[in-house]
Amino acid sequence: MSSRSAHVRKPVVRPLVVALATLLPAVAMAQDNAAQQAATLDTISVTAARKTENIQDVPVSISTVSGEKLDALVSGGTDIRFLSGRVPSLNIESSFGRAFPRFYIRGYGNTDFRMNTSQPVSLVYDDIVQENPILKGFPLFDIQQVEVLRGPQGSLFGRNTPAGVVKFDSVRPSQEFEGYGKVGYGSDNLWNVEGAVGGALSERWSARASMLYQRRDDWVKNTGTGPNDGLEGYDESAARVQFLYEGEDFEALFGAHARRLNGTARLFRGNIFKPGSNDFVDGFDENSIAIDGQNHSELESQGANARLVWDLGNYRLHSITGFETLETFSVGDIDGTNEYYTADVPFASETADGIPNHSQFTQEFRLESQYSGPLNWQAGVFYFSEDYDVDSVSYDSTNGSVQDGFQRINQTNDAWAVFGGLNYQATDKLELRAGIRYTVDEKDLIVKDYWNTGFSPCFLSAKCDLAGLLAAQQLAYANGDAVDPFLSASTKDKKFNWDASATYAINDDVNVYGRVATGFRGSSIQSAGAFNDKTVAEPETVLSFELGMKADFWNNRARINASVFHYEVKDQQLTAVGGSTGNANILLNADKSTGKGFEIDMQAWLTDSLLVTLGSGYNHTEIKDASLSVAPCFACTVTDPVDVNGKALINGNSLPQAPKWTHNLTARWSTPVGDAGEFYVFTDWAYRSDVNFFLYESKEFTGKSLTEGGLRLGYSWNQGDYDVALYGRNITNQIRATGAIDFNNRTGFINEPRVVGVEFKTRF
């Protein structure tokens, strides 16, 4: 990573106050534009049912992000977490910074920070599932649209979708020569550069190439003795190339992409909470920290895909092939301090996680009918194969960060599925849909290497000498004998999922629907380690009920989509992260957990120059298992009852990182300037209510509500081909803890502070 000088952030209140003041008269001026031609909402096309449809006709709760809103959200150089709260019921957080996002839909997700973990929210990028959590962080650029599908999608999407799917579609090549370039500069020497160019190569072939480059100086000064004097900087680059062949009855789209990240790992801040409170300690400064350990993150990933379509008259055959690979390593000072063996910091913790080898291969064949009658169907087969190593490393912060422990595991995951879907237009007003999927999912995990001199591997483990067991296992391999089952595990899950829905058109502008759906997430394996035995969590299953309405009104100037839902998860896989038992993940199965709530998505042209969107989600989640207990934090105030072993009883608690409320708001006002120019104001806001960071409840580790706002003042001309804007992200500079580490001290990590900058974009 290139060197960067840390510095204290300079005040930027004055320009933001001026910008906010500009917004008020702008809204008032919008009332004078009634003479313009009436503005109407565009039709939104989605592929939630694996084919292109109007979002208003799909019986699923869906939100989309695209166009100018997407441009505004990415202007501050942030990673994929910028989507958090930008649609109803979506939360995204990370304890690995830019590298490893964790998604939650309707409060349903997974806090597990292991690199061989799975999530109940599936991420699909250009029709290819991104299973490993590191793959989920690929940056967004040259994107046509983001779709968030809420609720189980277990029939038509193939990997771990019981909570929902987040789907990204890149801009496809076309025969027309076109592209764009964008460059932005902001706080802390932030550079955000992206662009794309594409067009015809021949009568049948076209191509498109796009790229992204982002960098930022360190903005946190380290006053401790660690090797990093500045932190939170990064350099990131990514690129994508696509080739499209369009024949008479055949289409082929080939793509390849790559990413490189070099920067700061998640910055853990030791003892930032007041005892007995979730307030920051007096004198807390987001621009400063004192740590003595290492902090660094590096990541490289590549992938390629081929999407082929044959038009066979009444049928269409799809072949989707994908390959992904990655390599990553991230090291951090987990205790977040510079001193130890005190009441506040009992011991040092400095660890790293990495994936030195990884490969993922997927193949899908799908056949769909194209009948002119009321009945149509699709059916297919899906195959998934993944093989990778995971390294876990520990260091002695009191001895110059000398390595004192190492473990390497290997996990393979092979799965196949057959699936189908049916659409039947029963009457002019009533459409029925159903889907099924049968999946076989197999995992194998083995410990390949282990040694530790920093602490006793017998701390919790029923098996004491892990290094000795490993040596015996390796000898057994050489002799062809049986392997010690403690150091290996295999799972095989077979599950049948289904969904059924009905849509009724009240009139041409209003649909109502009902949907029942199931989903499942395959078993998870936790390798044996210094702080825990090997554990296997059984697969979880979900049953979801949803009712919704989708309506266009006011002469297509306004739209409102709303849904209510209830889901029940059986054997939900939970993760006790840390706690007084040490820096380890302990896999658990809860007998049951439930969620219920609603979502509303609205957008409207209030005047011909003022477009407003509003989204809101309410999610009430609850763990229901009277016997389930977890080790609570070492140095906090637990509010749950405890059992005779001092463990917290979590029955009745909400799921972790599950806010009850999420709200989002955008407003865009514009006025013509000259013959082909436009001045505009765009603002966006996102709110999430407080969250539990862990399975148990405590005063310190309850995250406060968070409100982040953005503002963009711009001028575009030549019918939008050129645009220049001033922008601000998190303009109120509200700083909140978004996660924590609980096994040692009151360590937390925070959201991004305010960023301001200028951006220029041109289209051609």
UniProtKB/TrEMBL annotation:
GO biological process annotation, one example: iron ion transport
Stretch forming the signal peptide: 1-30
TonB-dependent receptor plug domain sequence ranges: 55-165
Recorded coiled-coil stretches: none
Gene Ontology annotations for the cellular component aspect, listed alphabetically: cell outer membrane
Motif stretch (TonB box): 43-49
SUPFAM superfamilies referenced in this protein's UniProt entry, alphabetically: Porins
Domain TonB-dependent receptor-like beta-barrel residue range list: 281-731
Location (main, coarse): membrane
Subcellular location: Cell outer membrane
Pfam families linked to this entry: Plug, TonB_dep_Rec_b-barrel
Keywords: Cell outer membrane, Ion transport, Iron, Iron transport, Membrane, Receptor, Signal, TonB box, Transmembrane, Transmembrane beta strand, Transport
Topological category with respect to the lipid bilayer: Multi-pass membrane protein
Xref: PROSITE patterns: TONB_DEPENDENT_REC_1 (PS00430), TONB_DEPENDENT_REC_3 (PS52016)
Family as reported in the entry's similarity comment: Belongs to the TonB-dependent receptor family.
Protein name, UniProt field: TonB-dependent receptor
Organism: Stenotrophomonas ginsengisoli
Lineage summary: Bacteria, Pseudomonadati, Pseudomonadota, Gammaproteobacteria, Lysobacterales
